[in-house]
Amino acid sequence: MSPSARRIKSPQQLIAESGADLEGHGLKRTMGLFQLVCFGIGAIVGTGIFVGLSDSVAEAGPAVVISFVLAAITCVFTAFSFAELGGAIPVSGSSYSFAYASLGERVAFLVGWCLLLEYGVSVSAVAVGWSQYLNELFDSLFGFQLPTALSAGPADGGVVNLPAVIVILLAATLLVRGVRESARATAAMAVLKIGILIVFCVIGFSAFEDGNLSPFATHGTAGITAGASVAFFSYIGFDAITTAGEEVKNPRRNIPLAILICIGVVTLLYCAVALSAIGALGADAVADKPAALSLIVNQVTHSTVGGGIIAFGAVVAIASVVLAVMYGQTRILMSMSRDGLVPRVFERVSPKSATPVANTWIVACVFAVPAAFASLDVVVNLTTIGTLAIMAVVNIAVIALRRRDPGLTRSFRVPLYPVSPILGVGFCCYLIWGTGWSTWVQFAVFLVVGALVYALYGRRRSRLVTTPAGDGAAPAGPGA
Q1: CB neighbourhood size of 467 (10 A)
Q2: What is the SS3 assignment for 376?
Q3: Do 173 and 355 touch, CB atoms closer than 8 A?
Q4: What is the mean pLDDT for each group of 10 consecutive residues in the chain (480 residues)?
Q5: Which of 204, 312, 437, 456 could form a disulfide bond with 280, CB atoms 3.0-4.6 angstroms apart?
Q6: How high is the pLDDT of residue 95?
Q7: Kind and range of the H or E run holding 393
Q8: Is 225 strand, coil or helix?
Q9: Residue 171's closest CA among 160, 163, 184, 182?
Q10: End-to-end CA distance of the chain
């Protein structure tokens, strides 16, 4: 076994190092359970249901409800693992830090590499979806839409997707002001979008017809599996809850609770929205339709007012996803920088706002480029398989850490251990199978590139190498 494969940071070391950065200014614990739950819902409920529902329906037809449940089951098993590890290792690195404590530095870097893809593509794709619903809102309120040249990238017949860039920059502006302000904004947006989705369900069920659910499994079991793989993109974001580990009050209690509450609420909401949408107009009216929820409400109510309200909810919902996912990305980069695996600029925290300002603006500028110019459809499956691989690793990390550190304080324990994490790995592999061989090849290439980056940069600059005598911990400072 190579020396880098044996580089493991104990949970105690990770927690000790998380107290401060090199400047001596730590993050502040300001989020309670309610804000953390809203943050999780803010990270999950957005483009996946407002925009991605039509793609899932195209694959599975009315059986998309089963696809959502299958995706949710995968998430539930993994959520148990995230809850155990998030309560035991309450730091900002999420699954990256969990892998570091259980499986070693090389695996941790590749997990972080996949997280960069997951969060980066997710933010950019979400921003593009925000642009679509903003145009729908403008059309409902004012009777006009932004010109295609300014609201779509070159691949979609435009020049630059300006609204997508604007929402990313607005999120960055809010994030650098402080986590308290960001948490309050996310909580308000989460409550609003849940309310609007409930209104949609009421409207949809008012026009519900049983015949619209037949034939149920349009494309058979293969369609349900493919639909679940697509629907899984709708759940991406619940792991962002663990990236708030250093800014949550009583994290050992609140992180596990928030994860489980979010998965339960979101699953019920997604299934209700899908069932009401298809029951109202049928699968053909939903499949492959942009801004599908607004379209359904307009047709059911025979008015553009309801669709405008849904569009407003989507604009708010998707903006909150951009905010929450960008937050998670900056905290993961901060943890990787603290370990020396990415440049040190990402770990610096402003003494004024107690936020990683430079990190946030770098992330915003990088994410804004693909959102403005690129077509992201071709990498959505790549993002899904990367996320599933991360979740499989987290389930494995639970087993590895139970063996490596059985005495570690765990505020939540995975039920039915070790069956539960093993089933989590199995469901992840099952959905990976549904992404298709071309996605497997893309992902293999992506991992090879990540391994090369680690070999050429991260392995040599790791703090476990550069500060071997002092165990890599930075001195705690004010606010730690």
Answers
A1: 13
A2: coil
A3: no
A4: 64 70 52 82 73 71 80 80 86 84 91 85 77 78 82 80 89 83 78 86 86 78 77 71 78 84 86 85 74 78 76 79 84 88 88 85 89 71 82 93 89 89 89 81 91 90 70 37
A5: 204
A6: 87
A7: helix 377-404
A8: helix
A9: 182
A10: 36
d(CA 159, CA 196): 32
CA distance 313 to 303: 17
Tokens 């979010």 correspond to what residue? 262
130 to 63, 161, 380, 390: CA distances (angstroms) = 27, 10, 16, 26
- Can you give the pTM of this predicted structure? 0.77
The alpha carbon dihedral of 149, 151, 152, 157 has a sign of negative
| Per-residue tokens: 267 | 């699953």
CA distances from 442 to 187, 235, 383, 393, 445 (A): 37, 22, 10, 19, 5
Q: How far is Cα 241 from Cα 82, in angstroms, rounded to an integer?
A: 9
| Number of CB atoms found within 10 A of residue 453's CB | 16
376: which 2 tokens? Answer: 């992201």
Percent helix, strand, coil in the chain, to 5, is 75, 0, 25
